[in-house]
Write a structure and sequence with these properties.
By secondary structure, the chain is α+β, with helices and mostly antiparallel strands. The protein is about 45% helix and about 20% strand.
Length: about 200
Amino acid sequence: MEARRAMNREIYSKKLKNIEYFAEKTEDFLGEIGPLLGHISFSQGDQILNKGDDAEEIYFVKSGTVSIMDSQLESTLHEFSDGKVFGEWDIFFNNGIRRFFVSAKTDCLLAFLRKEHFDEIYFQKFTDYSNSLMLESRRVFDKMVGLDVLPLQEGLYSDTEDGLSVPPPNDELVYLDNLFNMMLDLQHKLSKYQDQENKL
């Protein structure tokens, strides 16, 4: 078993490091998540996710660009390109239901992680990565649904022409309230998995 894990660490640390999201992750993490990833391609204009569907996977963009829309007739809310993650916000914040339509703006190659494996990797084995992914996901999700909520953590400030900006007091209070509720939800999920493990 340990020999296989060592082999997975070596293989997937090389395979995944060229994807931005995985570039700074540990070899242990890459060795665990790598064998669980599926891969799928879409042509320009293809529908990837439909609003209202169950959220069964999260996605990592290996190449290409995807567009996020609240309605198929409305303009694009956000775009994700090479190395970015999308679809995880539905699991974190929308009760496992797809909140947006997602389509391929260009030809795309995606890696995906099924929800049961996402729960295992992020909520049981690598909880630090769950925290960082949730914070970034919350920033993007709030931006897409029209909330002017700007995280205070370094590296998560709002994008402006002048560089990084600090949120005004009202935004700070809203963000702290959202963050508190978000961390309570994460704590609940972690406790649930720990209880399940104790029963085994």
